[in-house]
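Lab notebook: predicted structure, single chain.

Context: the supervisor wants predicted structures on file for every construct in the current expression panel, including those that have not yet been purified. This is the next one on the list. No modifications to the sequence; it matches the entry in the shared construct table.
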Amino acid sequence: MPYMVWQDDLNTNIKVIDNQHRRIVDMINHLHDAMDSHDRQELNDILDELVDYTLSHFTFEESLMEDAGYEFTRAHKRVHEVFVKRVAEYQMRFRAGEDIGHELLHTLSHWLFNHIRNDDKAIVDSVRRHMHEMGTDEHEGGWLARSLRRFFGGRH
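Prediction complete. Output recorded below exactly as produced.
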């Protein structure tokens, strides 16, 4: 049974954001499953992947907010920054040999669900309005293609 289960109230109805959030939930579940193996290298690799992906997600989400002219972008970025520092502390503690697994899982699950339900829900109207204004298609000129190109470079 998964540690975290996606719930419908977590959907923002912005497909790219919801897919990224679901991927983070999957990674947290993978971390939970790997804790049973007590393989520190596997746990380290999963933790690194989770942190890297979350950072990429935050950057992408922040670019959407900026493009949409969301008035509380700075505050939302600050919430992301505080979370990143918190997770970096967990990484340091883990690398120092401390068993942080259960504490980390509890923090990740509660923070993520609260963040999606509150902070991310607050950006939905602005981002969706901007998406509609810019064209919602995923083709060359659509908002998603432009955002991915800016974020990742090249053609997507």
